[in-house]
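Milestone 3.1: sequence recovery, worked example.
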């Protein structure tokens, strides 16, 4: 025993077993806590920290707004497409109209040119016939003034004989066409219109008449209906504006290409009384 053991102040108090055990438990708990904290710290240090973003929840109102926006976008796209189609159709129509207008102008120009050529040809024919009539008239006047009475009578007789021969040929031709068809614009030989028949008849005796009835009604000398001779040209309507022509064949009869229902017929003057007549032969 120590020499100081008898002194109370120097004697360490004895620790009870329970105290020791409690202190050991506290220490163990602290150590355990420190171990867990260390492990946790190590784990936290090893793994990166991530941040989680919460997206807004798609509510019924938001869904309706999205659907409405989609409908508006679709309608706008359809409207743009419709407008584009209309613009394309308008452009195509304008292009076609321009083409049609150019074609119409071209056809009109061609028709005008043909009409002018026909008019010039007809004018030349009228001038030629007028010159022939003037020459024949001058020759007749010269023969009458220079010849004797006998010669004059002979000349008149010859002239009448020639006119009768030509007239006979004209009459014979038109009568041979009776029963054939009437076709507007036709000049034979299987069908005629009124002026086509008259023109063809006088062509047989070497006389070139105008093609249309208006011109044929002024192609010769005007004669009265009470002084008609075979071969005279009858016309209906005014001189220069006649709408129909035919040929007087004698005996109060005429031949004409009347219409599509009757064709070429021989009828009395009372069937369709003419307005006037001209004598070419």
């Amino acid at each position: 025993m120590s020499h100081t053991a008898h002194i109370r102040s120097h004697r360490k108090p004895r620790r009870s077993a329970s105290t020791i055990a409690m202190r050991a438990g506290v220490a163990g708990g602290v150590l355990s806590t420190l171990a867990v904290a260390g492990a946790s710290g190590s784990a936290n240090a090893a793994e990166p920290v991530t941040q989680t973003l919460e997206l807004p929840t798609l509510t019924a109102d938001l869904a309706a707004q999205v659907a409405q926006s989609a409908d508006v976008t679709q309608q706008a796209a359809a409207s743009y497409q419709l407008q584009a189609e209309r613009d394309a159709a308008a452009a195509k129509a304008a292009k076609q109209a321009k083409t049609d207008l150019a074609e119409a102008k071209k056809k009109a120009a061609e028709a005008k040119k043909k009409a002018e050529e026909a008019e010039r040809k007809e004018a030349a024919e009228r001038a030629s016939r007028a010159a022939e009539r003037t020459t024949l008239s001058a020759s007749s006047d010269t023969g009458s003034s220079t010849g004797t009475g006998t010669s004059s009578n002979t000349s008149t007789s010859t002239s009448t004989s020639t006119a009768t021969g030509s007239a006979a040929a004209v009459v014979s031709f038109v009568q041979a066409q009776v029963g054939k068809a009437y076709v507007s614009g036709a000049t034979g030989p299987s069908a005629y219109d009124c002026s086509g028949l008259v023109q063809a008849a006088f062509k047989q005796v070497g006389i070139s008449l105008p093609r249309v009835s208006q011109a044929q009604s002024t192609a010769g000398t005007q004669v009265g209906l009470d002084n008609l001779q075979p071969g005279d040209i009858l016309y209906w309507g005014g001189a220069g504006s006649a709408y129909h022509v035919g040929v007087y064949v004698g005996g109060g009869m005429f031949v004409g290409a009347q219409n599509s229902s009757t064709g070429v017929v021989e009828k009395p003057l009372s069937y369709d009384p003419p307005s006037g007549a001209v004598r070419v032969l």
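Residues 87-146 form one domain. The chain is about 55% helix and 10% strand.
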